[in-house]
Amino acid sequence: MDTTTNTDPDKATCIRSLELMATGSVEELAEVYGPEATNREAKDEPSAARGRGPEALHATARWLREAYSDLHWEVHDAVRDGDLVVLHTTMSGRQTGPFTAYADDASVEMVFPPRGGRAFAVTQTHWFRMQDGRIVEHWANRDDLSLGQQLGWTPPTPVYLARMLLARRRARRPASAH
Where along the chain is composition biased (Basic and acidic residues) (predicted)? Predict the structure, then answer.
């Protein structure tokens, strides 16, 4: 197992993929993700993110960017074992837009409105399966409880619960009604 971060091109590709989630275009994501790449985390994301390939990953990036400003992943460790690369990271940023969670049928399940641009920093572990120098599969372990606590989502106050319900109602309206 190789644990260095700067000598392995696959580890460098995975690190770059996180940077591109914060700032990259679909063309840049196509440089690191294969055409049939899958993101196992997309089951809770908008329908456009549930497909395969760089376009779906870019939909995930847009979804994150709509809620969070100043997105950044600090990589603490990178480990490779065969075709797997694992990154232990801290994701940080500020919530400046609503964060929308989706149900299995891709309908809006819950909306978490921002609370004054609060900052957050949470640990995550990202797993990547590599093939021919590009990512073909991604999944993650995230500390969503700490994220919710830092952003004031949990425990919710009665006023924040009301804001969440109103935001969900607005998000569920047909596009013509917005």
Answer: 38-55
